[in-house]
Structure prediction request, 596 residues.
Amino acid sequence: MPSATVRARIRPGLWASVLFIALIVLAALFPGLLTSGSPADTNIVATLSPPGGEHLLGTDANGRDILTRIIYGARPSLLTGLGATALGVVSGTLLGLLASLGGRVADEIVMRLGDMVLSLPSLLLALLILSVIGPGAVGTLYAIAIYTIPVYARLVRVQTMVIRRSLYVEAARSLGLSGPRIVARHILPNAFAPILVLATIEVGTAIVAVSSLSFLGFAAQPPAPEWGAMLAGGKDYFGIAWWVAVFPGLAITLTVLSITVTGRWLQRRVEGRAA
Amino acid sequence: MKHAGKRWPSRRRHLLSAALIRLGTSLLVLWGAVTVSFSALLLTPGSVEDALIGTSNVSPLVRQQIVADYGLDRPLIAQYGSYIGNVLTGDLGHSYKLHQSVTSAVGTQLGDSVELALGGMALALVASVALALFTAHRARWLRGLSSGVELIGISIPTFWVGILLLTFFSFQLGWFPSTADSGPASLVLPSVAVAVPLTALLTQVMREGLELALDEPFVLTARARGMSDFGVRLRHALRHALLPVATLTGLMLGSLIGAMVVIEQVFNRQGIGRLVLTAVKEKDLPVVMGVVLLSALIYVVVSTVLDLLYRVIDPRLRGAQ
Prediction:
């Protein structure tokens, strides 16, 4: 009974989420398909014009069309979000494997280092890293990824420890398969589903992190059509033009919300299969 | 009860060893934070004396004097040793830009942030208890609505919540001041912004706990005694739901410095967040490191206290490792 009710309840939200993600991906890949304008086009006679008419979501203080800028802003947000997540997954998986298969000393070192990283607030850690390697796209990627590395490492470690005791790994070993081969052919594929689920949800978290850093003046700088940077650039006009404050934030929130909804649905499916 | 005399010593031993393990891990985390901070100082492009001198033009002699004053000509290991020694005595070094020690810079900014953090935390706790009590095991549409709102609360970026509150309740409606120095009223909007994501997360956890507790036999017993539904929720079920909430609240306290950075920027408030943000922009690393250490310290203290408190609150955990 529970699975049936869950399914019936989440379907509309899930479809809307998937559709919205598809739209954002399309905007990131081919922004020209969704808008004819350019994010840098200024219109001096139409500065801060309210939503409606020619400018569906209004214009900012320089007369730039907000909808166009939001569409062009999808690419940097998605790229950094996916990039940081990929960096976290790959490094975390390698460290998790090292911890679970590399013996007790390696395990202790990796796990305690992870504890240290996780003991700091993620944004503070990102700022510390940015203050060392300096702002910019690469710095931002590392700054956001570092906090997720121990999370994936822990997950992979636990998964590996369970899987390596399973019968099929024992069977593979008794068939004479080498250690690396067992890891690549049996352990990793079986640990993959929960990692993928976590990574899906983490893309959303990473996108919020990117936009927060951009808003604070790191990552993307204001003239760039990035969602967080758009909010930072419009800061002085919120009092007279609410649309400058609302729409870029709405783009971030809807994107993250869609990713979270989809990720949680995946999570339920994977957990349901494992149970 | 019969075995109480026998079990007590082993229980105490468990508590002691658990406390020792915690203390060891805590020291490790703090040492790690100190070491990471020190490495950060070394790894930063540009030498420390450049950061100290800034853009002003100085003669080589003065530069030499600065290097000698700060002990930058000593071997790394000696610098590291004296850095650890200083941190142990509470001396976090001197700000490159602020003309004061890191300890006093952090000290003067701490008050405003603590005020905001406590305001936000209190608001979140009250709101989430009320929401969870109201929605646990209720009609499906109500729970659906609540969990939908919680999902939005978790997904929404904190700085945008702040911007929306500022735009609508301050600029448009004029209900609250937009400046930080207008008494208690200026604390309302920032506290709400801090509280939104916390409330969403806490409500989820608390409702799950409440629903589990409401299925327990003791709830049936209480109902059979003729207790009202609200009484059962408040007096019996809530206590069970509060245990995981205590952990989560503790962990949130540590992460609040991150929220402070964003919220203080949005609302133009003074505080730790603003201090560290300015320090990062100006490459004032001793201040950045000071805040990082403070944050690690908060985490360590909170999680140690929680861990020990947990065993006191929940008798079931006393025998656990």
About this structure: Confidence is low (pLDDT under 50) at residues 1-7 of chain B.
